[in-house]
Amino acid sequence: MGNVNIPKKVIVVGAGIAGASVAYALAQRQIPVTVIESKQIASGGSGNPVAVIRPEPGGAHNPITTLTTLGMQWLVQWLSHHGQAVPHELCGAIRMTRDALRHQKLAQHAAQYSADWISEVTQEQASELSANQVADRGFHLPVAGWIEPIPFIQSLLNHSSIQVQIGLHVSRIEFDEKQKPRITLSDGSEQQADCVVLASAFGGSLFSSSLAIDSARGQLTMLPEIAGRHLYKIICRDGYITPAIRGIHTIGATIQKDDVYVDARSTDDEENFQRLQRLLPEFCLDKNDCQSGRVAFRAVTQDRLPAVGQLAPNLYASLAHGSRGMTCAPWCGEWLVSMMMGEATPQLEQWREVLNPLRLALQ
């Protein structure tokens, strides 16, 4: 690792949670960063009004379980120091399962951990914790909650070493004879840096080989707070409902692969309403109380893991964080920058192949 050249300047493409996280990790090391964003900060999947942050229980050798655990540990520490600038609450979550077999598997997983992290709960206990009739037994995740993504991303980017350029997209990346990258922007201007990190949702298209990253459309549904009815926990299974935040519960989200329809659909609100009935059957009985929420497009992979790592000399990626971006992308940004800087960390080799973006390269 000793022969790594520490970059003096880095260009990050994308100002969503992935790009902001990489820029933040670089800035913490006093590396100047230019973040280039074609639309606005958090314009894609990162721009939802509220995001659920939580670990995904699944077993000791499940990479998604480990990654979301590392992500939550990073977030809890960061929020303890900087959280006053970012609306959030670690209110906990009730996680239900699809079937008895899955419940049994998670029960075995939960038995190995402290109740401060995960505990099996009966339907009655889950209902008592959330102050509402929950549809089934499940697991209580105390270290889970919600965060407002845009203030979070703005806080990460608010650093003297980070410059953000809005309204330009990168049309080309070329490398000189020393493998130094040069980018061409949509206005015809060029910029050079020691490294480029692709971190916009579908930014892998700038790489010479295509990556197997799919687009998944997601629509949220909003439910105004019901007078006298409080919800104290996030309730989730194949979707979720949040406590009322600024007077609104968020229900979500639909997942439709390769669906490019950008406007909200009433059929999707119906689907989210049915999702709510499977979580809290007595919470809201009239679907007309629901309102259409935001539509966004998430970048996802077949194995549901992000694409983080080196694509080529001096070209890196933090892509395809799917529905877990707020939970995992900040830790992934820190991990990627550790790799770029040649820092020896315990997790470096463990994750290099698991997250390797070249695993998705199409021949």
Describe the structure.
With 363 residues, the chain is α+β, with helices and mostly antiparallel strands. The chain folds into two domains: 10-47 and 151-212 and 303-360, FAD/NAD(P)-binding domain, CATH 3.50.50.60; 93-142 and 214-300, D-Amino Acid Oxidase, Chain A, domain 2, CATH 3.30.9.10. Helix content is 27%, strand content 26%. The chain contains eight helices and 21 strands. It has helices spanning 17-27, 63-82, 100-110, 123-130, 149-157, 266-279, 325-341, 348-355; strands spanning 10-13, 33-37, 51-53, 88-89, 93-95, 119-121, 138-141, 145-147, 162-166, 170-175, 181-185, 190-192, 195-198, 214-224, 234-237, 239-241, 248-252, 256-257, 291-300, 307-312, 315-319. Strands 5, 6, 7, 14, 15, 16, 17, 18 and 19 form a nine-stranded mixed beta sheet that branches. A six-stranded mixed beta sheet has the order 9-2-1-13-21-20, covered by helices on one side. Strand 20 (307-312) and strand 21 (315-319) form a beta hairpin. Helix 1 runs parallel beside helix 5, helix 1 (17-27) packs parallel to helix 7 (325-341) and helix 2 (63-82) packs across helix 7. The mean pLDDT is 94.
